[in-house]
Fold these 2 entries.
Entry 1:
Amino acid sequence: MFDEKEMILEAKHVTRRFLTSGGRELTACRDINLKLYKGKTLGLIGESGCGKSTFLRFLVRLDIPTEGEILFRGKDLTKQKGEELRQLRRHIQMVFQDPGGSLNPKMKIRDIICEPLINFGQIKTSEKDEAARRLLETVELPGEVADRFAHTLSGGQQQRIAIARAIALEPELIIMDEATSALDVSVQKSIIKLIVKLQQEKKMAIAFIAHDLGLIQAFAHQIAVMYLGSIVEILPGKDVEKAQHPYTRMLLSAVFDPKMDFSKKIERMDGEIPSPLDVPPGCPFQTRCRHCVERCRQTRPALAEWRPGHKVACHIFGKQGKA
Amino acid sequence: MKMVVKKNKYVCLLSMLAFLIILAAVFAPLLTGGVDPAASVLKDALKAPSAEHIFGTDKLGRDVFVRVIYGARISLSAAFLVVFLIFVLGTVLGVVAGYFGGWTDAVLMRTADMMVSFPGMVFAMAIAGILGPSIRNAVIAVALVSWTKYARLARSLVLKIRNRDYVAAAVVTGSKSSYILTTYMIPNVIPTMIVTAATDIGGMMLELAGLSFLGFGAKAPNPEWGLMLNEGRPFMQSAPWMMIGPGAAIFVVVVVFNLLGDALRDVLDVREE
Amino acid sequence: MLEIKNMTVSYQGCPIVKNFTMSLKEREIVSLVGESGAGKSTVIRAVMGLLAEGGRITAGDILFEGKSLLKNTPDQWRRLRGTHISMIFQDSGAMLHPIRKIGSVFVEYIRTHEKISKKEAWEKGMEMLERMRLPDGGNIMHAYPFQLSGGMRQRVGIAMAMTFHPKLLLADEPTSALDVTTQAQIVRQMMELKDEYDTSIMIVTHNLGVAAYMSDQIVVMKDGEILDSGTREDILGENRNAYTRKLLEAVPSLGGERYV
């Protein structure tokens, strides 16, 4: 379903380990392989602390993995430095989770959204007004917002500003870290619609982090499910209900939706998420999985193709041809 | 303008007082009717305060009032110079250390730690002693032991916003480090630093006077307040006015500048948004 | 059981909640839903007598078991809170004393409401934690709040709130800071508690899915006013208020609208 020629970024065997103060090793990301395609959205989903944000920060080079490479236009992002890195930044932009926190409280909106353009000399200071108006228009905000400070805007408006800043340079890839989770549902919907519209116009790739599968399946072409630093399932966004991995199924069952069957009982989930410091050998999900067998405790299941475009890392449900 | 004055009555009053002190220093010759602070009239030595010499005279018959007024020139300019030096040095080093971290930070902060582990005054005396007593060396000594406080403060203020999303956003949008330092870090640090500097003027003045008093600062016949106190010490019983004049001057000036610093804190609103 | 009549709450003379009327029966769950700033939290804070500084109920009345809460003395409030009415917050961890162990806070809490020995209080606390299916209650009693995950802290908060089997549990966004899987578990446990202790629950949430799953009644608020209210079936039904519909449609649903 994805054309390999349209691939713009590839993460290969990306691993990130932290050394804790006690001298123990914490693996935040373990051997992650992902591909991003032009004009397509990758939804990265998982619970807090699963390493999804850590991974996305590699893509914008706010952090560097311990191992592995991230290829963008044939260049390994992890090895870029100085001016060369700065030039690459123009193609990869980011929208943060907390809309208020990502806007400098001491700058006017005009200066915030024009900053990337000024940074790369694409406009002169005298052209700021014009550029700001144009950008605000693309994110459906009135032009007079340019003269205000971020704290005078609502959360939804702030996030629109953050999006305007991210698209100012016409990047090929935008990283969105829970970009809507701080917003009300109705605002969330309008922001998602805006993102989708902009993506269709500008053909940019998006990597979107979320913890709500219900939200992500509405607009992602590809969904990657992360658990304790590993990717346990990759599947097409439209096939989310065909998810195989028990963890993905658990996430699915945890979606509350006014159209659901209210007599459905919520399954009891015993077993806690193990501490990332003590990930058991074998399958990371074994402590919470009702299907866990001896083999799951021994060997870690590899991510294997279950159907075209759908990979699962599970000994029980990951086998080819087994529904 | 009227609004500003009304809202910040207290600051305005204190600024006015501070301004008066500075004016007194600048126009010292006018204020003292052209009397030379070094002119000694030995027959007038150790005269008690009177209409002619309102603060009395010292052991060489010099007018204490004239010397106190001229002393403001030395004390104020030295204190301002110290504060300016440590303000600039501390801010720059602190911001750089905080923003870049790594070995820059380690070296700078370990040096700062070393400085803190000595009692500041003793350390300043040692430096001034080595350099030789003069007001210039006293300034250098005090600056050398005091800059670390500013560096630490600037660093901690930078660290507070260093990991904010909006700084990360600036990096991602391709801002150069120099740009981030000047438009994000410095403006964030400056208000708090100004308040600290304003409150420190009094303290620095005291330290400089202290050094002079101990003989590590200004040398006779300079009319420096600390030195004057020292000169008056042997006559504490017989001619206490020799110490009262400069002592009162130090007291008033330090109080005014300390209060001004505190008041500025409220006006500049150095709090988290 | 709980009746709020034409209540208006004002902050510094400015009404935040206007003319709020609602009644709650025993063993019922009511959800207050709406966007942020709609005044949802203010309503339950008013019921708990915990309006922030400057807030006042300027009109109307709140009746709890037939008695007005507004005339309560501080002493009466103390007897009511924790035993008859309790509350859980968005982050119960923030309520727990940061540098005291859970156990010591819990024991103190129990002993302010019941004259029992420390040992008995400790056991009671352990029992409540186990009811919340927190594995290894002893460990948790000896832990500091920051050593627990958000979900665990929230369960501790609920365990404390339910210790004296209150008749009314007020919950202010109890799941919105949690992961979806944890959210589902908390929702399940709150519903179990309702059955077990016959507790009525008033929950503030912006998640209409959660509201719909849990509630018997739903109240939709906007700008301090009730725009719509009714049984769950009413609210989710067809011919509702345009705002209710807008909110409902905004909830992403599996197999629902896709934008790409």
Entry 2:
Amino acid sequence: MPNLIIHPQLSRRSIGLLVLAVLAANTFLRLEVNAIQSQKIYESKNDRKIRTAAIIDKLSLMFPNISMSQSELRQLRNEILLAITSSVASSLGMEAGGFMGSLLIRTPSAPDQTLTVIARSDSSREIGIVYPKEGMLAWEAIERGQVQITGDVTEEFDGFDSKPYKSVISFPIMVAGNTIAAVNVDHAFRYLFLDRGLLFQTNLRPYLRLIALSLVNVAETQPEPKPGVEA
Amino acid sequence: MNAMEQSGQKERWFDRFNRGEISFDELSQKVYAIDHPKPGWQRQALKFLVGAFLPLLFVGTAASHNDSQ
């Protein structure tokens, strides 16, 4: 067994300081290694999301006319919005139940004046509601083609005092450089989405492209009459 | 450029990729750079101070303390 030779003049204080130096250097190196590893994991996750979104965009060019009944289309959008709220909740380490996703488009009869909610992630809030463009975060997202965030909608906008939500994030849905709709995600807690808009924009991109596909590529068909039921 | 403007810039990169103007690798790098801006010099200086200077300070103090014995 090798003898551990310690210099006789090395005091306890010196040894303590040396141990501290080794610990500090070790912690620093470990933090650096962790940072590099998490960057690599994020880059790979980032790439997967962007690739998936690109595949969806390519598919949307290959299948320009998908026929679907109104109820099927509604169900499809509902499922995509559920995937969005679930992903947002997971990123924040929260329950998905408190989040609501909504899909808004320009109202066909007044495209420059109002927005209409055409789908929700759950049925507790109704669809078909028409909102004037003034003070709407989704309108800003559509007009600017940028992600919009508010930490407290009741403080920053008029007319939202009675609403059950505070934090709202709005994503533009773009097709060929034009914004055609917006997806809103809201929650009753304040300041949930601040400083997270850019990361959500990348992470949610596959789902947002599916929403774009459901808006552009799908044509609604009339529901077929049930057998035995006369028109 | 604030985060909202950067989100618009990111959408434009996606659009350019879809039109075949840039490669996937270029798009991925652009998106990563927007999502993860480099820390400012103050943060990097602090990191250097804590990570490299502090252990050296401990070693130096230990050595000088040893010499004075």
